[in-house]
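Exercise 7b. C-alpha cells:
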C-alpha cells in the first residue's frame, strides 16, 4: 500500500501550512512527518499568522534551557538554545554559532559569576553576560545568532572604572534594547539601546564595527521605540524626541511634551500601535513593605507631525505588551488576547537590584476602558528572578 502522504503534492501541504494561524499549531504540524516538515520550511505564513506573544519565564540564570508560556494554549514550552563550548570563541555547532560561547559563559564559582540577563525585541532575545558584559542577539526559534561589537572603552569603560564590582553589577549596565527591523527578514537594521538612569542612547547598525552614542541635554529616558521609520525616545517626565533611523543617529528634535501630565512614581512607555504612536504612563503606588505596585495606566495618542497629544481610553482592536522588553502591540484575538487591554510584567526592578529577597512580581491584564486590572495571565512557577525578569517575546510569523 502506498504511503498516503506521498499521494498529495507538496504544494498542497504547503498551502495547508500557510493557513495555520498560530505558531504553536504550526510547530506541531511540522512534527507529523517528513513531507509536512518540508512544507513547513517553505511555507509563507505572514498573511495568515496571528501573533500571540510568549512570556519568557524567570529561570536560573546559568542554563541554556529557557521556558516560554503561551497565551494561546496556556502551556509552557521549553526551548533549548544552542549550548556553546566552554572555550571562549568556540562552539559545538557550526561557525555561525561560534559567538554563542559569549552567550553562555561557564560557571565560575558559587557566587554565580557567569549569569546573564535577557531582553527582547521583534521576536529576538538580547542577552547581556555577567562575564565580559557581552551583548548577543539570538533567535529562539531558528537559533540564529548575531554578535554586535563590544562597547568601546570611552563609552563603557568610564562607567565601570570607579565602581567596586559586585556579582550583580551588570544589571546596572543596560536597560532596554529595540530593533528597527527583524534581523530574520533583512540585513539592514539598527539596534538601539538605552542605559538605565542616563541621558545616553547607543545605536549599532548591522555590519558596522562600532556603536555610536547620542548624548543629549534631556533628562533620563524611560523608553525607546521605532515608529514610521524613526526611533523615538521618551524622558522620564514625558518629553518625546525623535532621533532618525541610522547610526550615528540624527540630531534629536523635540516632538511632544507631556510633562504636565506626569505623576510620580511612574514608568513611561512608547508603543507603535497600528500606525499610531502611544505614550503610556504606568503610575505606581508605595506599599507598606516598601515595594511598588501598579496603580493605573494612562494612555496618550501622539501626533508626531504636530506634537499634539490626546488622552484615550481605547486601543481599538489592539492589545499592548509592556515590560522588560521593547514595547509593542498586536491585533487582539479574544479570548486568547483581549482587545483594549495592556498585558504587563514587572520591569520596575529597583527593588530587585538593591534587596536580597524578592517578594512580589506585579503582572496582569489591565483594561483601559474599565481603568482597572481585570485578571492574571500567569500564576505558575518561575515568576521571580533577580537576573532575568519575566518578559514578553513577540511570536514568529
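Sequence design result:
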Amino acid at each position: 500500500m502506498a504511503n498516503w502522504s506521498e499521494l498529495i503534492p507538496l504544494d498542497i501541504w504547503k498551502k495547508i501550512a500557510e493557513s495555520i494561524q498560530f505558531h504553536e499549531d504550526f510547530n506541531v504540524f511540522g512534527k507529523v512527518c517528513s513531507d509536512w516538515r518540508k512544507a513547513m520550511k517553505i511555507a509563507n505564513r505572514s498573511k495568515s499568522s496571528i501573533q500571540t506573544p510568549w512570556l519568557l519565564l524567570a529561570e536560573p540564570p546559568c542554563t541554556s534551557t529557557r521556558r516560554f508560556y503561551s497565551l494561546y494554549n496556556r502551556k509552557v514550552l521549553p526551548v533549548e538554545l544552542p549550548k556553546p563550548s566552554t572555550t571562549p570563541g568556540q562552539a559545538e555547532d557550526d561557525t555561525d554559532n561560534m559567538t554563542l560561547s559569549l552567550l553562555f559563559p561557564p560557571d565560575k564559582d558559587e557566587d554565580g559569576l557567569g549569569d546573564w540577563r535577557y531582553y527582547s525585541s521583534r521576536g529576538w532575545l538580547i542577552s547581556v553576560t555577567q562575564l565580559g558584559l557581552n551583548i548577543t542577539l539570538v533567535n529562539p526559534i531558528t537559533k540564529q545568532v548575531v554578535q554586535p561589537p563590544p562597547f568601546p572603552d570611552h563609552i563603557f569603560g568610564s562607567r565601570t572604572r570607579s565602581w567596586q564590582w559586585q556579582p550583580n553589577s551588570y544589571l546596572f549596565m543596560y536597560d532596554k534594547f529595540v530593533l528597527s527591523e527583524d534581523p530574520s527578514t533583512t540585513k539592514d537594521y539598527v539596534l538601539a539601546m538605552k542605559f538605565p538612569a542616563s541621558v545616553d542612547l547607543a545605536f549599532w547598525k548591522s555590519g558596522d564595527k562600532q556603536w555610536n552614542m547620542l548624548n543629549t541635554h534631556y533628562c533620563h529616558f524611560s523608553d525607546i521605540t521605532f515608529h514610521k521609520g524613526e526611533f523615538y525616545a521618551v524622558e522620564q517626565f514625558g518629553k518625546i524626541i525623535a532621533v532618525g533611523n541610522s547610526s550615528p543617529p540624527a540630531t534629536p528634535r523635540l516632538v511632544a511634551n507631556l510633562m504636565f501630565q506626569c505623576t510620580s512614581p511612574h514608568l513611561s512607555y512608547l508603543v507603535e500601535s497600528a500606525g499610531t504612536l502611544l505614550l503610556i504612563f504606568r503610575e505606581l503606588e508605595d506599599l507598606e513593605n516598601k515595594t511598588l505596585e501598579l496603580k493605573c495606566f494612562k494612555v496618550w495618542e501622539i501626533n508626531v507631525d504636530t506634537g499634539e497629544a490626546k488622552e484615550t481610553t481605547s486601543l481599538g482592536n489592539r492589545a499592548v505588551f509592556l515590560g522588560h522588553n521593547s514595547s509593542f502591540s498586536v491585533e487582539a484575538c479574544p479570548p486568547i488576547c483581549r482587545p483594549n487591554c495592556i498585558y504587563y510584567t514587572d520591569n520596575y526592578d529597583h527593588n530587585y537590584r538593591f534587596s536580597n529577597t524578592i517578594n512580589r512580581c506585579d503582572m496582569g491584564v489591565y483594561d483601559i476602558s474599565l481603568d482597572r486590572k481585570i485578571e492574571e495571565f500567569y500564576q505558575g512557577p518561575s515568576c521571580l528572578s533577580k537576573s532575568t525578569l519575566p518578559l514578553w517575546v513577540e511570536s514568529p510569523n
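Instructor comment: The chain has two domains: 1-49, 50-393. The radius of gyration is 21 Å.
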